[in-house]
Amino acid sequence: MDRQQEAPRIVVGADGSPSSQAALRWAVRYAGLVGGRVEAVTAWDLPGAGSWSAPAVDATFDEEDAERRLVEEVRTVLGEGGASSVHERLVRGNPADVLVESAEGADMLVVGSRGRGGFSRALLGSVSQQVALHAPCPVTIVRPDVPVG
């Protein structure tokens, strides 16, 4: 199957924040309009992982629990019916890098305007700003206070 016949692939960043939840709803609605499929990507990284010669270890991180929480978040935001149309992926790495890499070959990358971190007065979070600058496809940045039809 060549690229023109494939369903459009919409990648959405998911981190549990209100902006991320709004982005997920937007991505699913958009995918429905264009006959696309949605891939919800959550990135996890260990603080300081790149600054030591030995691999970083976080005894409190449970990858299976993180995957379960991602699936749960998608179901909570979209309901059972909407969640069935979303493929969830948990990827280790810097969130901006993970999303840019995940968007390779995608038709759209959707992110919330602000994630879990950042300053309350910032218009864009650092991840949304980085993906807007470096993504290999069009990017939509969704604010949590914008109604989604």
Describe the structure.
- This protein is α/β, with parallel strands linked by helices and 149 residues long.
- It has one domain (9-44, 60-142): HUPs (Rossmann fold), CATH 3.40.50.
- It has helices at 18-34, 63-83, 95-102, 126-134, and strands at residues 9-13, 37-44, 86-92, 108-112, 139-142.
- The longest helix is centred in the middle third of the chain and has 21 residues, at 63-83.
- The radius of gyration is 15 Å and the shape is globular.
Work out the number of β strands.
Answer: 5
Helix coverage percent of residues? 25-40%
Count of helical segments? 4
**Anisotropy-based shape:** globular
Average predicted local confidence, pLDDT? 81
Instruction: Give the end-to-end Cα distance, rounded to a whole number of Å.
Output: 33 Å
Number of domains as seen in the coordinates: 1
DSSP strand (E) fraction? Answer: 15-25%
Most strands sheet: 5 strands, parallel
Which structural class best describes the helix and strand composition? alpha/beta
Spans of at least 5 consecutive residues whose pLDDT stays below 50 are: 50-56, 118-123
Classified in CATH, the superfamily is HUPs
Largest sheet: spatial strand order: 3-2-1-4-5
CATH-defined architecture: 3-Layer(aba) Sandwich
Radius of gyration, CA atoms, in whole angstroms: 15 Å
CATH class: Alpha Beta
Order of helices and strands: EHEHEHEHE
The CATH topology assignment is: Rossmann fold
Helix and strand arrangement:
Layout: E1 9-13, H1 18-34, E2 37-44, H2 63-83, E3 86-92, H3 95-102, E4 108-112, H4 126-134, E5 139-142
Parallel strand pairs: 1-2, 1-4, 2-3, 4-5
Helix pairs in contact: 1-2, 3-4
